[in-house]
Each structure stands twice: as structure tokens, then as C-alpha cells.
Design a protein that fits this description.
- The protein is α+β, with helices and mostly antiparallel strands.
- The chain contains ten helices and eight strands.
- It folds into two domains: about 140 residues, no CATH class; about 80 residues, D-Amino Acid Oxidase, Chain A, domain 2, CATH 3.30.9.
- About 35% of the residues lie in helices and about 15% in strands.
């Protein structure tokens, strides 16, 4: 667990505040949409809705589960990522602190029913290695879904974001895919163009590459994680990420293998059963907090 420090001359990622409170990305987009005359319908059954619509109802199942806390803190700003199957199996854990606000999360790609155990392991790890200051702690949990279907048009409904499976299969990020697919769906309705053709041109190559990246990452163990982190420290990490996120001929050769090995867990039978209290079972019944 010898740490490495990653430096970059440009941002590697951006921090975005989410949620239903004022000042978040979600509320900002909602206000813009309403001001332009968009009708947003909540808590409505799709099979009871006639006519064209854009569907952004979120994930259909769990390919990854995240469990963590948000909190207030006096800690200095920092970004810490941990790759360890004993803390986040085939996923990652992270600690982000920005301007007195912190988030600590373990993202699991396996063993969802043990999310409480992995959460406790993550908490112990950070407390043992970092001088922590946690106030007003709030627990949360959520899940993400990835799948590749040939069409995202069903009964005149255009599916966007995670409801269409548009998610980075490697790390589970999807906000850019959600916004871009929403734009493409609106473009399709306004211009009467083929939505499937639009998203396949803009998104499909990146989605397929992320599936290959996930296939390769899951072959790694702790030795592979150490090698990966060391690579991040050499040169510009943004160049390294760009190289592996963009499609390539050699990587595309692995796509048939990756597709055969990958099976989207729309309904994970290992944990989705009566009286199970894991994140997936709780969130499968009602929205996560």
C-alpha cells in the first residue's frame, strides 16, 4: 500500500454537486429545461403514457454498487483513490474533500451483499492512513448499470443516460453520456432524425471501449493495480487516460471476447431476494436517498 502521487498540468476530473437542493447540477438543468418549455413528468408509468417522450429514469439494474458518506470537515482539499479488492472488489474507493465538504465511497463490482463489511473496511483504511475530521456524517448508497442494446427507441420513447445503459463500464461515470444522449434525443425529435443513428455515431465506440477496459481491468489483481498506479505517475496522466478511453484497432479485436464474458446484471439473483438489505435490493424497491 505504498502511495503514489499523481500530478497533472490540467484537471484529471471535475467535482460536481448533485441532488435535489438549490445550486446542484440536477436543479440547474431542471430550471433551464422548464424555462425553455420542457415538460418533466415524475412518478408516471411509461405504459400509461402515449406519444413521444425522452426517458431518463436511471438504471434498470446493478452492475456496480456504491456505498459511502458525505460530511462536513476542516480537512485540507484532497483527492485519494484506493484500488484494493479487500476494500472495493474489482472497483475502487475514494476520498474527496473540497472547501469543507467531503465524500467517501467504496464502489463494488462484486459481492454486493457484503457492502456493509466493505464500507467498514474502507472507513478503517482511511482513518488509519489519514488524519480524518468528519462532522454531520450522512450515509448514502446507489447503483449503476451498463448494457449495450441495438436500439434505444421503444414505443416512440427515446431512452437516454443510464436508462439506456449509457455508462462507463470501467469506472461507472455517466454524467457526460447522460447529457450528450439527452441532447441527441432532443435533436432527433426536433429534426425528425434517427436517434439510434445519432447515439451510435457519438457514443457507441466509447461505450464499447469501456466494456473492453472493464474486461481487461477485471483480469488484474493487486500486482496489476500497482502497475496501473505507477503508470499514472509517468508523464501526463490525461494522455494515458485518453489513450485507453479512445477506441483503437487492437483493442477492438477484444470486443467479441469482452461481450461474451460480460453479462449485465439487470437483476442479480445472488442478492435480490426477500429480506435482503443490500443496496441493490433496497434501491430496487424505491429510490436511493
Amino acid at each position: 500500500m505504498k502511495p503514489v502521487e499523481i500530478k497533472s498540468d490540467r484537471p484529471i476530473f471535475y467535482l460536481v454537486k448533485r441532488g435535489a437542493m438549490p445550486g446542484t447540477l440536477d436543479m440547474g438543468l431542471k430550471e433551464q429545461a422548464l424555462s425553455l418549455g420542457v415538460e418533466i413528468i415524475f412518478n408516471h408509468r411509461l405504459d400509461k403514457f402515449d406519444g413521444s417522450a425522452i426517458v431518463g429514469t436511471g438504471p434498470k439494474g446493478a452492475d456496480a454498487v456504491a456505498v459511502g458518506i458525505t460530511f462536513d470537515t476542516s480537512m485540507e482539499d484532497k483527492a485519494v483513490v484506493v484500488l484494493d479488492d479487500n476494500i472495493a472488489p474489482k472497483g475502487y474507493a475514494y476520498l474527496l474533500v473540497n472547501q469543507g465538504y467531503g465524500t467517501m465511497v467504496s464502489v463494488l463490482y462484486r459481492e454486493y451483499r457484503r457492502e456493509k463489511e466493505y464500507f467498514e473496511r474502507m472507513m478503517r483504511f482511511f482513518k488509519d492512513n489519514i488524519d480524518m475530521d468528519i462532522k454531520n456524517e450522512k450515509r448514502f448508497g446507489c447503483y449503476g448499470n451498463f448494457f449495450l442494446w441495438d436500439t434505444q427507441i421503444h414505443h416512440k420513447k427515446l431512452y437516454v443516460g443510464e436508462s439506456a445503459g449509457f455508462q462507463d463500464c470501467l469506472w461507472g461515470f455517466g454524467m457526460r453520456y447522460a447529457i450528450l444522449s439527452g441532447y441527441l434525443a432532443a435533436k432527433s425529435l426536433i429534426e425528425d432524425s434517427d436517434y439510434d443513428m445519432l447515439w451510435k455515431k457519438e457514443l457507441k465506440p466509447m461505450l464499447e471501449t469501456s466494456l473492453i477496459n472493464r474486461y481487461l481491468f477485471e483480469r488484474l489483481g493487486h500486482v496489476g493495480y500497482r502497475y496501473l498506479t505507477k503508470r499514472f505517475t509517468k508523464g501526463n496522466p490525461c494522455d494515458f487516460l485518453r489513450k485507453h478511453y479512445n477506441p483503437s484497432f487492437l483493442k477492438h479485436l477484444l470486443l467479441p471476447i469482452a461481450k461474451r464474458k460480460y453479462e449485465s446484471r439487470v437483476k442479480d439473483q445472488n442478492c435480490n431476494h426477500e429480506n435482503c438489505s443490500c443496496i441493490w435490493c433496497r434501491c430496487g424497491v424505491k429510490s436511493c436517498p
